[in-house]
Reverse transcriptase domain-containing protein
Amino acid sequence: MKSDKTPEPDDFPAEFYKLLVDSLRGTFNAMLLGEELPQPMKDATVVLPKTGKHLTLCSSYRPISLLNHDIKILAKI
């Protein structure tokens, strides 16, 4: 997890999660054993950066889902 990246949709930078590794371990283990993910971990913010010249064409945009760092960490486990 790169520390120089901007905060994700939850506004917590990567450094925040690095400080809480031990606290999050139990939560992540429970989720890996089948507990349901909390709703904020299921949410994403979709942005539409322009990739083409014509603003009226759908093909000029590339949707990107921004996820919080916590779900990215869980996905890597």
User: Anything to note?
Assistant: The helical segments are 14-19, 21-32, 39-42, 69-76. Residues 14-76 form one domain.
